Amino acid sequence: MIRQFELVERVKAYDPDADEDLLNRAYVYAMKAHGTQKRASGDPYFSHPVEVAALLTEFKLDTASIATALLHDTVEDTDATLEDIEKYFGKEISGLVDGVTKLSRLETKSENAKQAENFRKLLVAMSEDLRVLMVKLADRLHNMRTLQYIKLPEKRQRIARETLEIYAPLAERIGMRKIKEELQDLAFNELYPEARESIVNRLAYLRERGKAAVEKTEAHIRKTLDEAGLAHATVVGREKRPYSIWKKMETKNISFEQLSDIIAFRIIVDTVPECYQVLGAIHAAYHTIPGRFKDYISTPKNNGYKSLHTAVIGPGQQRVEVQIRTVEMHEIAEYGVAAHWSFKQKRDYSKDGKQFRWIRELLEILEKSSNPEEFLEHTKLEMYHDQVFCFTPKGDIIALPRGATPVDFAYAVHSGVGDTCVGAKINARIVPLRTQLKNGDQVEIITSKAQTPSPTWERFVVTGKARSEIRKFVRTQQRTEYLNLGRAILVKTFKQEGVDLTDKMLEGVIAGFNKKTVEDLVAEVGEGLINRTQVFEAVFPERKITSQPTKKSSLFEWVRKKPATAKQAMPIRGLIPGMALHFAGCCHPIPGDKIVGIVTTGKGITIHTTSCETLENFSETPERWIDVAWDTGSQTPHVARIKASISHETGGLATVTNVIAKDLGNITNLKILNRSTDFFEILLDIEVNDTRHLNTIIASLRSKEVVQSVERFYG
Prior knowledge:
Blueprint: H1 4-14, H2 20-34, H3 47-57, H4 63-71, H5 74-77, H6 82-89, H7 91-100, H8 111-128, H9 131-145, H10 153-173, H11 177-191, H12 193-209, H13 211-227, E1 234-239, H14 242-252, E2 263-269, H15 272-285, E3 287-288, E4 294-295, E5 308-313, E6 319-326, H16 327-335, H17 337-340, H18 357-368, H19 372-383, E7 387-391, E8 397-401, H20 406-413, H21 415-419, E9 421-426, E10 429-431, E11 443-447, H22 464-496, H23 503-507, H24 518-527, H25 532-539, E12 572-573, E13 581-583, E14 595-600, E15 604-609, E16 625-626, E17 629-630, E18 638-647, H26 652-662, E19 666-675, E20 679-688, H27 691-702, E21 707-712
Helix pairs in contact: 1-2, 2-4, 3-4, 3-9, 4-7, 4-9, 6-7, 7-8, 7-9, 8-18, 8-19, 9-10, 9-11, 10-11, 11-12, 12-14, 18-19, 18-22, 19-22, 22-24, 22-25
């Protein structure tokens, strides 16, 4: 454990004007407050806040942050109060301690709800002052370093997963790379110990075996830069962390041996122009790998990260990743916001958190979410993603998750733009709203005051903000419908009993139904959760209702009608005589597809295409698989399914149906999946002879201007 004078010396080393008296008083106060308390490891509890404070000195944080680290557990775990902290250390430190203090255990239904509520409180606190988050991250890092002393495996797993899903992404969002990587690695070790050990062993082997190759590449890069007049540049090779390697293997579904960028080379220079000079020298000396260049200097990441990334074929025909940055950029990459917010700034930290767009968006999600679990779900979506960078028509940059759509873009610009979005142009061309955006796309959102969010948007949006806004609208719309329906039911019921319903009548009984307002009661009647009879008899306990409810049918029930099965011989060879035959609705096999038969209890044999994903469910029962093939002599038509996107214009659907009819296809079912002012997306079930017949129809459809896209659909 670091001693008092050593901690003060660390702070004074980077801030000679630090308040030494404040640090000494905080150290002594915390030590006395925690007294004889012990940690799970058996160490004095006071060792924890001291180690958290020591961690923050590595990031050169101000005196108030170091004092907060020393005091952060006193209010929750000792007899100290916030009033005491404010009395002895001032309002600023009291506010920080309040934000970082361990959050009280909540009496909620689930562990997820507790986690979500704790995170909600942390978000509100860090939006007021980001130093709260920095201290919280250092606190979590030290707890993860001592995680092995917690006896319950379930608790260790929960803490590790929370670290991986929440705290590591938060560290990345404020650019604290060192803390992020160590948090990920420690959580990885707890959750997947065997996978981590395997990667660590392979890295050790490669490190020994490839040491000469790394040194050779580094020397070659130095020589290249010397010849370009950049001899002062610093070149260093850096090995990727085990978790980062594992994540890439999982995401790309590749083996360790297939990875080509385990070692990346970092080149550090003095100025921005020199960064591009280095890039030119590297690209001139080595063959570049297409699609691997990223300019985070002109387009920085959300957390302020700046650098040039490129990949080339280096010495020995090995792929080499290169990162190029200035000294200042490197400091920001290592320390994140701490590089800006060091003691040197002497700035007012309060309210600074809200300057960060992503924090503002998380706060908006907090306001829109209906419950803590939903908020946590949306914030994980918001924090945990690879990014694409798109531009507004004015040239402003919007960073979005990979896979984002124009609807996500619209909500990222402003909630009002998202709510009234009716269409979009990508690079001046009108596209469907579900189109996935690519790096560098210029996006223009078309809006209409008459538009409202469509519930179907939730199927394809990927940002937490868009999803929470859509859900909020749907909830509001549903509540309005339930209110109208509930009031109509109650008015009719009371009228049938000879009574005119008033809100005053209902106000007297809402407590009996455990509701806060009359509207809550009426909405639940409309939703069918509370019976109209219960309400009437609660208002008039001495009377029994005499009218009978009318039979209702649901307006939302959709019955899908299947075409009648033709009584014809089935064109399949290799069948078991006498068994019933079905064609799978998950893949819609047609002659020309490679097929397999699956024996299904009570159904006979079901025919699937050999590429059908459903077959994975039968991988452990090979005895149910039957080799079958199409009987080429049969001309029985089969149903294939296609998905098409067509322009919303007069005669558009007629063009599609005429093309199919002209090519002798027969439409047996049609369903509209999505619709907007510009496009319709439809599913069509078509009777065809075989794959050649289907491909002819698809080709004919693609030739029509009204058809934006068409493809065979398996599902």
